[in-house]
Amino acid sequence: MPAATPRSTVRAACPHDCPDTCALLVTVEAGRVVKVQGDPAHPPTHGALCTKVSRYPERTYHPERVLRPLRRVGPKGSGRFEPVSWAAALADIAARLKAIAARDPQAIVPYSYAGTMGLLQGESMAARFFHRLGASLLDRTICSSAGGEALAATYGGKLGMHLAHYADSQLILIWGSNSIASNLHFWTFAQQAKRKGAKLVCIDPRKTETADKCHQHIALLPGTDGALALGLMRELVLNDWLDHDYIARHVEGWPALRERAMAWTPERTAEVCGITPDEVRQLARDYGTTKPAAIRLNYGMQRVHGGGSAVRLVAILPCLVGAWRHPAGGMLLSASSWFKRFRDDVALQRPELLGARRPRTVNMVTIGDDLLREASPGFGPKIEALVVYNSNPVAVAPESPKVVQGFAREDLFTVVLEQFMTDTADHADYVLPATTQLEHLDVHASYGHTYVMFNEPAIPPLGQAKPNTQIFRELAAAMGFDEACFRDDDETLARAALREIDFEALRRDGWLKLPLPDAPFADGGFATPSGKCVIDAPGLGVPDFVPNHESALSAPGLARRYPLAMISPPARNFLNSSFVNVASLRDIEGEPLVEIHEADALPRGIVDGATVRLFNDRGSYLCKARLSTRARPGVVNALGIWWRKLGLEGRNVNELTHQRLTDIGRAPSFYDCLVEVAPATAAT
Ligand code: SF4
């Protein structure tokens, strides 16, 4: 803990689920944080933060912070609680969990994701606790596992270009990414490239703020990215824009994919993607003839049925044109596997505490269905307890009507570690006050750059809040877990988390660049067993276009009843469901809204600013309509993710989404959702 001085600056790291993992400089005056700035010396951050995190003091000192343990006194979901001491809360929680564990510990399910990306306050002491308990394992799939597993099948890991090299690219395809809103520090490098003459092409169903600033926007239909990649491949073949030498030496399985791609004429591709044949031809020409060409793919495009296959197909493109030969060519979806050599998750999470037990795995995407399941041989025991941390499933999990019904079960024992009374906390039996990033120690990897980050606590915990690590330490003690690993303090955990890293230098400087080659696959060397880019992957075969679960191609009857495709990208000033309760940010967003093109709005009698109802067979959601060319005809953009209790009728957009999974990675398909929209007054 830094010595308390009248004014000091503490090095920290942004914990949020964003590829940029910014280095922060936190100014503390008389024990209070007065300013949070970007570190100008950290190359990816270069002194700039997004609006969200530059308001961090407002979030930390928010009058609605949960600062004492709370015990439910009203019905589930009513949000009525009374303060209780830590000792009483921990004793009762331990007693309840022990009673359930005595029957079957798998009836207890942890539920967590990337509310913090920190290695310590994420899955360290928490993982040890649940391993020791023998609780169900959680398949943490809600965001990126379709793309992540697709990359692993193709490149051998979540590996890609270095962020800074985009500044030297001559062509950048910004594919499925509203970079200005959700990858701001990549955008800085893209702008540098633009100033040096590069062409920027945005491929996204929504005409985002990023699309506004690119040279070209290709507004394809949601879930058709794989078809576009196949159409591009055909043009690359026919025009001989391939790097035959690179393919021969570093790609395996191309002939079968080549044959498949030849069926994707520009006309067929255009029809499936909802674009023009000329857009396909021109994009292929740009990509095949410009060097170095780079792709910045982001996770939005893989939240559809065929998301995994689409990522595989896009990831093959840089290999076909030899883009990887240059540091400024290639692709980045995630850089997180670059950290694999430097982090020790086994030391941190202690899976050996499971012993010989092999608990079942619950997929976090299907928590709605799973909370409503009875015990069965296939499912195992009914879920009797949930311990939620770093996540807000009642707001963010798909198909909320079922999620809410599950969380409202009076026989479900729910403990929520939280900073605020979220929709999920409202459904808890106990809410345990958790610290923010400014109040605890952590270390971070990144999925958008290749620097390890250190987060020094800037201030002591507010009120009675505790770091997640400390809460699980104390819970372990209350359960009677006496293994020495439950007494490791946070610094011990931080040292255990990293290897081949100069810990003292990292702590002193706040960040440390990984020693990696500039052009990682210039001469092949992918992390696959063969060292090659793999097309015909074991168990997956050769990738193909996979249509959406809900589309005219796969479900024509459904598409007649619900003719509009809905995507639900994050509002610019929110980060998933984080920051929705920060008044100054919520004021910028205004209110929940759906962007709709006038070609869809006018025939339905919808005018700009009208309250409309979005609906399908799963539910309905009320919000304001914004007539806008940000929406293409046939697609509506319902911006998320609002807290349910701050939305009209106490609902959010996940009222409409479903729990069906992606083709690879068992992930959600949030952006694969058909709806109809009507003025709110119409009977629906
Ligand atoms: S949310 Fe992203 S851009 Fe904003 S400060 Fe955090 S890492 Fe940086």
Fold and architecture overview:
The protein contains 24 helices and 27 strands. By secondary structure, the protein is an alpha/beta fold. The chain has a six-stranded mixed beta sheet, covered by helices on one side. The longest helix has 18 residues. The mean pLDDT is 95. Iron/sulfur cluster binds next to helix 1. Iron/sulfur cluster (SF4) binds next to helix 1.
| Strand composition percent | 15-25%
From the alpha-carbon coordinates, what is the Rg to the nearest angstrom? 25 Å
Average pLDDT across residues? 95
N- and C-termini, Cα separation: 57 Å
Task: Give the structural class.
Answer: alpha/beta
The number of helices is 24
The neighbouring-strand order within the major sheet is 5-4-17-16-15-6
Oligomer: single chain
How many beta-strand runs? 27
Characterize the largest beta sheet: strand count, sense, and whether it forms a barrel: 6 strands, mixed
Small molecules held by this entry? iron/sulfur cluster
Shape: globular
Query: What share of residues is helical?
Result: 25-40%
**Stretches where pLDDT falls below 50 for ≥5 residues?**
none
